[in-house]
């Protein structure tokens, strides 16, 4: 059974680094793993030093690991090409152009991106699918979509029979996939939601708000990683000691307000980039969280 890991949190807290290190760790253990970024501003390609595209690509130097990017613009174009292909064989170009214009709204972009997300969740070839998500608000919207679209299809069936992207009959098969996605997200044996934060007020408050929002969606298997903690053997240095004194109260506060397990990752002297560094971070992660 495929398992899903979602890494989320405020921008700049280290989601891409930790999700990448986790994916490398799982692949090194022999698990066929897909790492997907849903963040349009992701630097996943820089972390691995290779291009990332709309289709899964093998990671050079790490057997069993594949990476993929869900880019809204590329997803929209792929969706339009697929939907318009049958029309091009039957109708004149003017008709096809008119149909394409109707598919240029935000509704189509949202469903195209969502379709890519659902496709990644229904990948039987992988034991793990790790999602490196966009900052919190975007991710919450993405996770709300399976329920929202399933309800929209159901209501459209009772009403006009039309959705913003066409006949509801054409989406009947999709509804089952959306319902399956909802069940997978809510199943604690299948999905783990990993919040990445730093020991500071803004990222921790945003993380706790998101944790509550996910509880409303019945996504309850949540863990937190506090990233960038001053290592214990560095805390006697005057500069590091001052930074630790600022971090510690926030860590204590999080312990009292977050119900899930909490792991701690150190502040690294070097940038988390390249396979060797990802392997080192992965080894530390094994001690920080239990998956």
Care to describe what's here?
This protein has 10 helices and 10 strands. The protein is of the alpha/beta class and 291 residues long. The protein has an 8-stranded mixed beta sheet, with helices on both faces. Strands 6-7 form a two-stranded antiparallel sheet. Helix 3 runs antiparallel to helix 4. The radius of gyration is 21 Å and the shape is globular.
Poorly predicted regions:
none
Q: Report the portion of residues in β strands.
A: 15-25%
Strand order of the largest sheet: 3-4-2-5-1-8-9-10
Give the count of helical stretches.
10
Largest sheet: 8 strands, mixed
H-E order: EHEHEEHHHEHEEHEHEHEH
- Give me the secondary-structure category: alpha/beta
Report the average pLDDT across residues. Answer: 85
Rg on CA atoms, Å: 21 Å
Q: How many strands in all?
A: 10
Fraction in helix: 40-55%
Distance between the ends: 15 Å
Assign an overall shape: globular
């Amino acid at each position: 059974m495929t398992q899903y890991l979602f890494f989320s949190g405020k921008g700049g807290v280290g989601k891409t680094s930790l999700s990448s290190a986790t994916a490398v760790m799982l692949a090194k253990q022999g698990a066929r793993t897909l790492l997907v970024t849903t963040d349009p501003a992701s630097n996943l390609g820089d972390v691995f030093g290779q291009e990332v595209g709309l289709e899964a690509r093998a990671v050079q130097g790490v057997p069993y690991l594949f990476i993929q990017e869900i880019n809204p613009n590329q997803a929209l174009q792929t969706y339009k090409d697929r939907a318009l292909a049958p029309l091009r064989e039957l109708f004149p170009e003017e008709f096809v152009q008119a149909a394409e214009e109707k598919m240029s709204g935000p509704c189509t972009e949202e469903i195209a991106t969502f379709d890519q997300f659902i496709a990644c969740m229904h990948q039987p070839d992988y034991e793990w699918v790790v999602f490196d998500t966009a900052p919190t608000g975007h991710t919450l919207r993405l996770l709300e979509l399976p329920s929202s679209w399933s309800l929209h299809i159901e209501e459209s069936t009772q009403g006009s029979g039309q959705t913003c992207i066409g006949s509801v009959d054409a989406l009947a098969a999709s509804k089952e996939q959306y319902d399956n996605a909802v069940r997978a997200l809510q199943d604690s044996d299948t999905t783990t939601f990993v919040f990445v934060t730093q020991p500071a007020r803004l990222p921790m408050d945003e993380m706790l708000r998101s944790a509550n929002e996910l509880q409303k969606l019945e996504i309850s298997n949540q863990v937190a990683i506090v990233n960038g903690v001053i290592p214990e053997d560095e805390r006697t240095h005057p500069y590091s000691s001052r930074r630790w004194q600022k971090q510690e109260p926030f860590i204590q506060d999080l312990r009292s307000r977050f119900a899930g397990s909490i792991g701690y990752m150190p502040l690294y002297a070097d940038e988390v980039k390249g396979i060797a560094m990802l392997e080192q971070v992965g080894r530390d992660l094994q001690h920080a969280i239990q998956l």
